[in-house]
């Protein structure tokens, strides 16, 4: 191994950190927490040397600490296929920054400006998520789904919290926050990340009482969610329009945890000058792995980027022999559940039979090939059902997902059919953009049409996932609809990865059919 790249650099913005401590005097516990965090990151070389039983000096010379947001920018730009693009990273916090704007030209990435701690759009959205009663870190997507049920009645209040600046950046009105003074403790009690309260008591004076965890969702909460989403979009487009002006470019590469805000992403082409947008499948912190690696590689070789990542199937895959072994190990449980097991040799026959099950309203667990990298199930670790049934969302939630009724399910559509169903025609392979479904098509696919007429699009191309494309094609031959509802293969747990996990999830839920490679298991 020649080089090891880490997507954190504790030395980044060092003097800015010192200045902040001297001028703000945060709580001692916050300072201690940050020092522990810094030591842990700086100690990576010794950890690697110990784990792999190699010389520390040998490892230390090969470890490269890449600033968090530079790694984000690199993670998108160097796999976008663009030779020149404007770059933006937006997230909660990393190496004392929350936003970084830059330009990529050939192998070079140059930085235009950044927004530094404690100001953060990601933390604004997380604070809003907490205020609306969702305590776990990472539940921002629930607010995004809830927003479509409300109207932005509280946008003026939001503009008191997030202040847009003339230079294309923003500030938080810190009287509404406490992360800058008390810190953000995180625990994993029960296996879920729980972050300390970010918003201050001033929020209740501005927006009314906090929604308690588990309390009924009222129209007021929907309107506040809608207003928060609108504020995020205003700030994002404010940044992007300035970036477009300063860069003079019409290609954009977006990264950072806020890149998962698919509703805002779908509006970039209509609210900014950018004509094309690339967001890779793991645009959050996990994407920092390839970002750091590519940054080091291009810094050393000066090789111009040419590669475009068109799919996310980079995870483990399992042979038919491994699947057979899994079934044999679990044969008693399979028989106890009164399931029929059939091996289908022909791929076309496999897809045709599965498509027929879908058209009959059955819930299908679809486990194929290499697992997806990133948070979205994209047709290899998916639950697939009929989008034509208006009751399918409720059926899925009752049988398997057990999730909030206001959260939408996503459509997977053959790439060549996008223009017939959506008001745009674009490649969206990673399910990271929401677009409007044509009004005359919404009644045809009600299970994947959100309350506002939108759908979180995933385009499926023959060249990147032929078997999934064939499944949708066979479904179209039966129903005339080139769309299926796709949701992650799990039951309030991480997405299944192995045949054993897929089979266990199938057996303990009310799923009707499991397609495990070329084997169909049917109740």
Topology:
Elements: E1 4-6, H1 14-24, H2 28-42, H3 44-52, H4 56-60, E2 63-65, H5 68-77, E3 84-94, E4 97-105, E5 108-116, H6 121-131, H7 140-147, H8 155-161, E6 162-164, E7 170-172, H9 179-182, E8 186-187, E9 194-195, H10 202-207, H11 219-247, E10 251-255, H12 262-265, H13 268-271, E11 276-278, H14 288-301, H15 320-329, H16 331-336, E12 340-343, H17 347-359, E13 364-367, E14 381-385, H18 392-401, E15 410-414, H19 418-421, E16 433-436, H20 439-442, E17 454-460, H21 466-479, E18 483-488, H22 499-508, E19 513-516, E20 519-522
Helix pairs in contact: 5-14, 6-11, 7-11, 17-21
List keywords for this structure.
single chain; 523 residues; alpha/beta; Nucleotidyltransferase, domain 5; DHBP synthase; nine-stranded mixed β-sheet; five-stranded mixed β-sheet; 20 strands
Q: Could you please describe the fold and organization of this structure?
A:
40% of the residues lie in helices and 18% in strands. It is α/β, with parallel strands linked by helices. Among the domains are: 163 residues, 2-Layer Sandwich (Nucleotidyltransferase, domain 5), CATH 3.30.420.40; 203 residues, Alpha-Beta Complex (DHBP synthase), CATH 3.90.870. A nine-stranded mixed beta sheet has the order 12-20-19-13-14-18-15-17-16, with helices on both faces. Strands 5-4-3-10-11 form a five-stranded mixed beta sheet, with helices on both faces. Helix 7 crosses helix 11.
